[in-house]
Structure formats: structure tokens, C-alpha cells
Amino acid sequence: MNTAVATPLSPGTHTVNVGRVAQRYHVAGTGPVCLAHPGGPGLSWEYLRMPAAEEHLTMVYVEPIGTGASGRLPAHPHGYTRERYAQALDGLIRHLGVARVHLLGHSHGGFVAQHYALTRPNRLAGVVLYDSAPVTGPEHFAESARNMEAFARRNAGRPGLRDVLDAWESLGGLADDEAVTRAARGLLPAYLADYWDHQEEYAPLLSVTGTYISGLDDRLVPDAIDDRAMLGSFHVPALVIAGRHDVICGPRWAGELADGIPRAELVLLENSGHLGHVEEPDAFARAVTAFVAATVE
Predict the structure, then answer these.
(1) Domains of the chain by range and CATH?
(2) For residues 50 and 36, is the Cβ–Cβ distance under 8 A?
(3) Any idea where the AB hydrolase-1 domain is (predicted)?
(4) Element (H or E) spanning 27, and its range?
(5) Angle CA(188)–CA(192)–CA(196) in degrees, nearest 5?
(6) Chain segment 213-240, per-residue pLDDT in tens
């Protein structure tokens, strides 16, 4: 007879109420605790699953508020600022009962992780900024547009390239969950270094779903991101990971993060795009687990 008592870190799916909003999360693996915050904003958490890291770490996959089975804010789809996501993480970390955790943020989740590390350093043992950037807005978009043009040139003649470019061009007009899901799935080939020669391997990623999050606060003001002037005040050990072929948050931004954050470690995955944990899972897991082992308390 199994008499094990479930705890906040028992394997499986859990929900905790944080400020009257349900926060869903998923636990897998054993070892030091590492929270993983997915991107988007609004993407379902499953794409970020990291089985290779779970062999060494207790991975806590956050289902961000506003997505999946987590709760919605009263102003939904507005109000999901980095500070509001950070408050949800505050409640989750308290619930887990771990003094200091490692926080891994992917893409937009990296923006959240940067904000958390800058505003709540005492709650973190370390931060992993995975395919992140120190700034968004026109400069970031222009860099992404150049990268997408290079991607199109490299893959001229590939079947489905036009669909990828159509998905890219749709991003400015997304306004509902269905459109976000279509765009996320449509952009997948651009997010991988070599999609068309490995379509069967990457097919499970096409199950990703999205929730429309406006990017505005509850007063309908954009949640602008520019952390460049603050990177020097980082007091949290930091690992920066990016794929060499990432069209969204590639080596340029990884380099700026690593140069700006004191004593940050930089790892470039040479055969990856925006999803190195899937494209080079062993190299990715080695980098993360070695960093956690060196910084765990």
C-alpha cells in the first residue's frame, strides 16, 4: 500500500492560489529545484519539457498565469506585465518551501527571469537566461527581421517556406488564441536550425498551443523592456544560453547579456535555433546542470 504523502514538489501536476489567481505547475525529475518559465507570452508549457535535465534536477515547469489551466487576470488579455508574472513566481516559490531556487526563463520567460533576478535576487540561487534579450521593441524587431530574411535565403525552395513567412508577417495582427496557436506552429521551421531534414523528430512540437496576451498592462500601456542599463547591478549568478541560428534571440543578444552581467557564463549551441533543449538536448542539459551544481546552496 502506497502511503506517500503528496508535497508541493511531488512529481505531477499541482495548483496553488496566488493572490486569488490559480497558478498551475508541473514537477518532474530529482535534484536541486529549477523553475522553468516558458515563452510567448502565452505559449503552453509542454514544449519546454527537458527530460535530459530532469535526470539531474527537479524541474518545476510553470504554467504562467493567463495560459492553460492557470487562472486569468480580471483584465485578461491585458495586465500580464513582467512584475505581475514575478508576483506569481513569488507565491509559487513560497509554496514550494525552498529558500532559493534556480530560475530558467526561455524567450519571453527570459525577460521575466531577468526582471525577477534584478528585483528579487535574494530568492534565487542562480538564473538561466535561455534565448533571451536585454531589450525589446524596434531594435529587437529589426534584428529579428534581418535574421528572418537570412533564414528565407538559406531555405529558398523549401516546401512550406511561404507558410513560415506568412506566419511571421501575421504577428502584428494577432488578437485571439487561435491566431496565436497558428502563428506559433507556423513559425516552427524558423525556430529550428534544421527543421526540414528532421520533420518527424520535431513533429511533437507542432502540438504547441497559445493564448493571446496583449503585452499591455491593465491601463493598456505597453510593458516595455530595456534592461541594458541595469545589467551591471546583477547580483545573481547567471548562465546565458542561445542557439547560434536563433532568429529571435540569437548570439547578438546573448552576447549583450553576457557582457553586461557581471561574471555571467555564456554558452552558444552551435547546431541550434530557438529550441536548443530539443535540438541539442544533451549539450543543453550539461550546461544547465553544471551551472546549477556550481551555484547550488
Answers:
(1) 17-136+214-294 (3.40.50.1820), 138-207 (no CATH)
(2) yes
(3) 36-281
(4) strand 21-28
(5) 80
(6) 999 999 999 998 999 999 999 999 999 9
